[in-house]
Amino acid sequence: MTVVLSTAAFDSLQSAMVSTASNDLFRNKLPLIYIRVGVVLCIIPVVVVALKSPSVLQIFLISDLVSASAIPVLILGLWDKCYFWKGFEVIAGGLGGILSVFIFGTIYYGSAYEGGRLILLENGLYAEDWSAFGAFVAAPVGGFIFALIAFGSRIAYQFVIAKIQGRRFDAFDKPIKLVRRSSEERVFRPQVPGLDEENGKPGDTPTAVVEGREAKWWKLW
């Protein structure tokens, strides 16, 4: 991105936006030309921000601040023991981290305007105060706090809905994992009852089918 940020990164972002919008959002039901036009419209504010930015370094600092808000909460969801961690908490934590930077800046400077400028790191990374350091501390800490609040809210909502609808509360149920047997095992899968050889009627003894050397099997943990 020569003008925006870095061409090598920006064209990849364009391709990812088109692919995600086409496959995940619209399930390939919307013509590709409309999605590309929408991506171009989304790029316009990016170009404006890049042109108004005094330096490319500031754009990198803003992206680092966003990463400091969202990535720690996202990594927590990659831990197997946090299987109950959903995308809702990641989004809420990322946005909450940015909001935490604004709150910190407002308290630190005593001005909401300066708190907003701190999100954009207008004073740079090497300011004469501790504002930049505080911003990069407030982002992940605030992100975790907002993510935990979002997690508690989601669990409470699902619990209330389960009680109202009279169904089991399953928010903490472990997911089903795909277990792959060793290549030397022969897995048998029960099938429908076989036909009686004498009269051609369904027999009482079920048949079994060998899945093969590369068979996969489902197991509930």
Automatic annotation (TrEMBL):
Q: What Gene Ontology cellular component terms go with this record? A: plasma membrane
Q: Which UniProt keywords apply?
A: Membrane, Transmembrane, Transmembrane helix
Q: Which InterPro entries match?
A: Sodium:Solute_Symporter
Is Nucleotide-binding a UniProt keyword of this protein? no
Q: Where is the signal peptide?
A: none
> Which stretches are transmembrane?
33-51, 57-78, 90-110, 130-151
Superkingdom per UniProt = Eukaryota
Question: A single GO molecular function, which one?
Answer: spermidine transmembrane transporter activity
Q: What is this protein called?
A: Urea transport protein
- Native species of this protein? Coccidioides immitis RMSCC 3703
